[in-house]
């Protein structure tokens, strides 16, 4: 830890720090030259995350390194007359020891934030652990405010969009960790957990079925020692005490008793499942009515038999690839385009500058927990981390000037194809819905707002363009016109 604080200049400069840390470590401990650079960096991270050294110890080490890096300036003091021994003793007794500031909760958040930043800086945003929905407690709001203050301090210098993105991710991860939530790696399979009561009852039913199978073998005359050892001790003892017809009657009675127990427990499990499902539906209807009806529709589709002409995934992929890969073309020299160009040739849009107010307005419109893009950052975190707004506004404006500054991963999304009809066998009968990263949504919303303001101010939008106007009810007006005309 001493070497780590020294090479990072008290955690203020992380440029190529792992190579410097490795070189200094091998210089001090040449017998550990077999350790890799990654191993030493991981050991430092483990010390902090698992609290192998107390916060007091780390603060003391950090203070010592600070004094080594920035020694106090020596001041020439003129010679003083000699003092008596009693005066020197009195000064020694009244001298106060140097106080070492103990870590507070804010300091712990700083450590956690820096640890996350070191871990994920420069990593692939698509492979980072997904961030779950935060669970509100009495301390959640305070934690978010303190992490936002850390962001405000860390983002004092200029950062590009990719660096701002990783800072937002690490800040959200810090809030979740401090809130007591586990952030696991992205699950490969979304397996529904089995309730403990269902597992216990299912295990009991499995044991009864196993005993019934063994008793059936016993009723057929297979009374080998191997089989008797697998049957319960009470039944085996009673079976060996009997003989002849009495032994056969005992096997039949025991088998019948086991079958009755199996029927009782099976029926009990079905009743418990129905009751549990009913409670789950009631809770889901109370929390999210839309999700409840959507799940009912999915259940109905699963119960229907599969369509004989179900579409192949390769055919679906090829159809939409052909659409998305081909660039759209239009008639540049159309007559109406030339007319509009001549009509508005004196109207010119000024250079667009995205301001702090534009970013705030765009973020305010976004729902908190709508499905995020592949980066896993929900809109909620961008709403809470207001320290990033000025930096986002600056980078958005620079991106309009130089589009190459936009990171590629922010322009990529996850597309879901939802069928428009039941059992569709035509690839065109699917509706594509793409989940884009939140930062890109904010950027496009700011641009849309600027363009719409320009069109409305200069009266460029036609009255018939209801679909492009804000708060316009184009479909409703069209239906009214149809009802009057027809």
What can be said about this structure in brief?
The chain has helices at residues 2-7, 17-28, 37-49, 55-69, 85-94, 105-120, 140-154, 161-178, 196-219, 225-230, 233-241, 244-287, 289-303, 313-325, 335-343, 356-365, 379-384, 389-401, 438-457, 474-485, and strands at 414-419, 430-435.
Please tell me about this protein's structure.
With 486 residues, this protein is mainly alpha-helical. Among the domains are: 2-71, no CATH class; 196-288; 353-485, no CATH class. It is 59% helix and 2% strand. It is built from 20 helices and two strands. The chain has helices at residues 2-7, 17-28, 37-49, 55-69, 85-94, 105-120, 140-154, 161-178, 196-219, 225-230, 233-241, 244-287, 289-303, 313-325, 335-343, 356-365, 379-384, 389-401, 438-457, 474-485; strands at residues 414-419, 430-435. A two-stranded antiparallel ribbon has the order 1-2. It starts with a helix and ends with a helix. Mean pLDDT is 81; it is low at 73-103.
Strand and helix map with partners:
Blueprint: H1 2-7, H2 17-28, H3 37-49, H4 55-69, H5 85-94, H6 105-120, H7 140-154, H8 161-178, H9 196-219, H10 225-230, H11 233-241, H12 244-287, H13 289-303, H14 313-325, H15 335-343, H16 356-365, H17 379-384, H18 389-401, E1 414-419, E2 430-435, H19 438-457, H20 474-485
Antiparallel strand pairs: 1-2
Helix pairs in contact: 2-3, 6-8, 7-8, 9-12, 11-12, 12-13, 16-18, 16-19
């Amino acid at each position: 830890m001493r070497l780590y604080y020294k090479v990072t200049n008290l955690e203020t400069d992380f440029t190529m720090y792992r190579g410097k840390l490795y070189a200094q470590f091998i210089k001090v401990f040449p017998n550990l030259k077999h350790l890799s650079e990654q191993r030493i960096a991981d050991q430092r991270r483990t010390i902090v995350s698992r609290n192998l050294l107390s916060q007091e110890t780390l603060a003391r080490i950090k203070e010592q390194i600070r004094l080594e890096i920035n020694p106090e300036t020596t001041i020439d003091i003129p010679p003083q007359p000699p003092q008596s021994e009693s005066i020197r003793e009195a000064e020694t007794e009244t001298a106060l020891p140097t106080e070492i500031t103990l870590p507070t909760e804010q300091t712990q958040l700083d450590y956690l934030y820096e640890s996350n930043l070191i871990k994920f800086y420069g990593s692939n945003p698509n492979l980072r652990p997904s961030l779950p929905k935060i669970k509100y407690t009495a301390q959640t709001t305070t934690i978010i405010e303190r992490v936002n203050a850390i962001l405000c301090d860390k983002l004092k210098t200029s950062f590009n969009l990719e660096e701002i993105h990783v800072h937002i991710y690490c800040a959200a991860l810090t809030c979740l960790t401090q809130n007591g939530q586990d952030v696991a790696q992205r699950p490969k399979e979304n397996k529904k957990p089995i309730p403990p009561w269902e597992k216990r009852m299912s295990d009991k039913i499995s044991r009864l079925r196993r005993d019934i199978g063994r008793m059936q073998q016993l009723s057929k005359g297979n009374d080998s020692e191997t089989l008797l050892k697998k049957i319960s001790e009470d039944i085996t003892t009673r079976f060996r005490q009997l003989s002849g017809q009495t032994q056969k009657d005992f096997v039949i009675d025991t088998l019948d008793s086991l079958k009755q127990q199996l029927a009782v427990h099976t029926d009990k499990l079905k009743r418990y499942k129905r009751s549990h499902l009913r409670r789950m539906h009631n809770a889901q209807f109370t929390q999210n009515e839309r999700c409840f009806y959507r799940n009912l529709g999915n259940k109905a589709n699963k119960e229907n038999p599969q369509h004989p002409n179900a579409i192949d995934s390769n055919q679906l992929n090829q159809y939409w690839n052909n659409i998305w890969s081909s660039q759209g073309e239009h008639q540049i020299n159309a007559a109406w385009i030339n007319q509009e160009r001549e009509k508005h040739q004196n109207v010119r849009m000024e250079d667009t500058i995205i301001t702090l107010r534009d970013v705030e307005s765009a973020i305010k419109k976004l729902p908190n927990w709508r499905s995020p893009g592949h980066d896993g950052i929900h809109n909620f975190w961008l709403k809470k981390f207001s320290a990033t707004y000025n930096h986002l506004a600056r980078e958005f404006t620079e991106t309009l000037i130089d589009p190459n500054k936009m990171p590629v991963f922010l322009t990529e999304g996850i597309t879901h194809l939802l069928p428009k009809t039941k059992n569709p066998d035509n690839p065109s009968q699917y509706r594509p819905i793409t989940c884009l990263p939140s930062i890109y949504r904010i950027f496009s919303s700011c641009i849309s707002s600027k363009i719409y303001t320009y069109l409305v101010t200069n009266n460029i939008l036609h009255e018939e363009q209801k679909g492009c106007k804000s708060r316009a009810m184009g479909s409703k007006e069209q239906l009214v016109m149809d009802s009057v005309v027809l």
